Amino acid sequence: MRYLTGGESHGQLLLGILEGVPAGLHISEEIISKDLSRRQSGYGRGERMKIEKDQVEIVSGVRKGTSLGSPIGMIIRNRDWASWQEVMAVKGEGEGPLVTRPRPGHADLPGAIKYSHSDLRNVLERASARDTAMRVAVGAIAKLFLGEFGIDVISHVVEIGGVRARHEDIPRTRLFRKAERSELRCADQAAEREMIKKIDSAREKGDTVGGIFEIIVTNPPIGLGSYAQWDRRLGARLAMSLMSIQAIKGVEIGMGFEAARLPGSKVHDEIYYRKLKDQSSKIKGEFYRKTNNAGGIEGGITNGEDIVIRGAMKPIATLYKPLRSVDITTKRRFEASIERSDICAVPAASVIGEAVVALELAGAM
User: Fold this and answer.
1) CB 58 within 8 Å of CB 72
2) Each residue of 309-358: pLDDT tens digit?
3) 50 pLDDT tier (thresholds 50, 70, 90)
4) Which of 53-62, 79-88, 93-102 has the highest mean pLDDT?
5) Which is more confident, 284 or 162?
């Protein structure tokens, strides 16, 4: 299973093509658009989310609500296009007003140097996280596919601005329900209140905050991925998928970095075996573990335990109290330009994380 996306942040629309979905899968635009709505929510989001009300349109690969086995094509129209038609016109001559002031933390400067652009808008429009709307759409189809096998992909926020949630004792199903009702997708209400204070404080200072989200895959089968080649190790593929999300700077699976600080006796999950009571089954018993420090993956292969993976998101790079930079044309110092932005987008990143993880798992299936 593979996908491609296209489109600019302020262009006419976003494009997506998802290949490898088997025939016979029930798919509806409403289910996909529900995930798009989840991506747009969250305390600390910017003005753009008040303009865009993302709705997906399936244009190929589905007939009468069922996949055909051929590539599935989708579009999401940008409502903000109405205000940007002249600036982002496909046809015409001349460059128009140039953006020459790169923002620290963005792809502006290295992208302009790589592609020899004199106008930074040619970089920032595609490098924008607006692209993730389409990734959530294609990921929603991957989640439908996984659901056919009883596999769920859920997410929640575990840290924002240094405030960490306590969630270890909350059952998985309740954890997800609490996260869905939360403005910050955080299951710990006390921590959420403190996180909101951090976001409000950052807004007042013209600053931004980052955080950490956790993806949990329930009921994965044993044997996804492989140890046979480096690029088939599922942990590597999942890490790459999360690192492909804008502003993600770190990934850990299971115990993650904490495993490097502890002795092996405190890290590795002991293996047990139990007989099954159902005597009619050909399967007489099963292996299991009492802990899941490995996060469901050993040697690049799923071991049957829940997959647990976290992504660390840096603070949004566009600040309303700008940092210093240098104009690429005049080489003069200035305070970086401001593009409309969020104060905190960690809850949205967790929904995007569900999508990209689901796509990798669907491919592995």
Assistant:
1) yes
2) 999 999 998 888 878 999 999 999 988 666 567 899 999 999 999 999 99
3) low
4) 53-62
5) 162
**β-bridge pairing 152-160 and 211-218:** antiparallel
CA 331 vs. chain centroid, Å, equals 36
Using the 8-state DSSP alphabet, how is residue 225 labeled?
B
> Which tokens in the block code for residue 109?
């400067």
Q: Token match 């993880």: residue?
A: 357
- Contacting residues for 110 by C-beta, under 8 A, at least 6 apart: none
Tokens of 74: 């989708």
Question: Which residues fall within 8 angstroms of residue 287, CB to CB, at 6 or more apart?
Answer: 271, 272, 273, 304
pTM (2 decimals)? 0.93
Q: Where are the alpha helices (DSSP H) in the chain?
A: 29-40, 48-51, 108-115, 121-127, 132-147, 172-181, 189-204, 234-243, 346-364
Whether residue 47 has pLDDT greater than 70: no
Phi, psi of 203 (to 5 degrees): -60, -45
Separation CA 265–CA 291 (nearest Å): 12
Neighbours of 13 (CB within 10 A): 15
